[in-house]
Design brief:
62 residues
Length: 62
């Protein structure tokens, strides 16, 4: 009679552990800025926006 309760408790414990690990390691909160340091090139506004800007079309907005 106690075996089903043990299986349920172990299953709930594993489920909670996996949920905690997924939230801690796999979601946004588990990431740090150092994870992205080498994956993006440096964007320097003075270098990339120094030439003439051309608009071919209509710009909507304020």
């Amino acid at each position: 009679m106690t075996e089903p309760l043990i299986f349920i408790a172990v299953g709930l414990g594993l489920g909670l552990l996996l949920t905690f690990l997924r939230r801690r390691l796999g979601e946004f909160h588990g990431q740090s800025p150092s994870d992205y340091v080498d994956s993006f090139p440096v964007f320097d506004l003075r270098l990339h926006l120094r030439d003439e800007m051309i608009c071919e079309g209509v710009i909507f907005g304020p």
